[in-house]
Design brief:
Elements: E1 20-33, E2 36-43, E3 46-52, H1 54-59, E4 68-76, E5 86-96, H2 114-119, H3 121-124, H4 128-150, E6 154-155, E7 161-162, E8 174-177, E9 180-184, H5 189-195, E10 201-209, E11 222-231, H6 235-256, H7 258-264, E12 276-279, H8 280-289, H9 302-311, E13 315-319, E14 332-333, E15 336-340, E16 342-347, E17 350-358, H10 362-371, H11 380-383, E18 393-399, H12 400-408
Helix pairs in contact: 4-6, 4-7
Length: 428
Amino acid sequence: MLFNRTHNIEDVNANMKDQDVILAGWVEDLRKMGKMTFLTLRDVTGITQIILTDELTKAVEGITRQSVVRVTGKVQDTRARDFEYEIKANEISILAKAVYPLPIDPIGRLESHIDNRLNTRALDMRNQKTASIFKIRHHVLASLRKILSEKKFIEITTPKIIGSASEGGANLFSLDYFGKQAYLAQSPQLYKEQMTIGLERVFEIASFYRAEKSHTGRHLSEFTSVDIEAAFMNYTDVMNVLEDLVVDTFKYVSENCKKELEIIGNKTITSDHPFEKITYSQALDELKEKDVKLEFGDDLLDSHLRILGENHPSFYFLTDWPIKLKPFYITEKQDNVELSESFDLQYGYLELSSGGSRLHNPEKIKSRLKEQNLDPSKFSDHLQAFDWGMPPHAGWGLGLERLLTIILGIDNVREVILYPRDPERLKP
């Protein structure tokens, strides 16, 4: 049989009365009324009603909900309140029969626990809300690439299997690479820095890996990071790039995903310039007012960020962190070497991004590595690029899933990634 579907459901409308169409999708509902059967058909674009006569009713005898069918018919007027038109079928074929009962209700009339939905993720995509989440994710990715490309950034792809700790940190997944010790990359940091010596402005959107045994709704073992690095920019410059990116992405989604946002229940999303900026020292002062006393150089814990989030419930930059709290590649402030040219982008208590100005003097980098008890010889492949004329540069990394939870008004990052990986979940 030649499979010649003529239309997606969203392409059909009431003005097409008496026109022949061929549709395909899955059966969402089925009800008999006398000699007629009313079949609700859904594809990825929408839903419509199919009218089957007595003869065609026999052809679908025993069909189950969520079975896949192909329908040939004619567009006609309808009396149904929920539809602008209906299709009077003259032919229907069952392409695949669904088992009964299904492990979850994809329509959502019966609520399913998230673990059950994740275990049957492909079927979960037939749920309108779930499908809308991933349609919006698609548009967010399209927006990010469009905006960064317009800002003259070039997309790159860095290795995900690496021979040494990319930032000298812990929480790495190790693996055997043909008899050699290797790791899954936790960020593209060193590679993207190296690329600035020739390409100047680069970005990457890719999966990275962090072996943290975290059980919160905002951590994943495999996550999508949006990273940039730019020559001849400092931390203020790349903060501006990040702010533009977030604001423009919110605008892009609000303009292009109205239907999906309505299905999810988040009809209005906004993010406006300028983002508030507070320094690490100002944060300590705010915490002190809440009877939380920290010494300069103490890290801010989740409990501290939640207090700050009450004062700053939207987007804000937390800047000028103590240099000792930052990785070896972050540069110090010119007027105060105890502080760094660094920032975190926060949404309330939630950290979305971290970035800053990078050191580009190899001797300073070696010194900083030693201060952090790291062996410079293990970074020789990286450091050699600094002998070839490394420009001043800056960059950041942004967690895509965390950004999506804010755009969508969803608390759990597992909702916005197809097959989440966490300490308990390795399959499907």
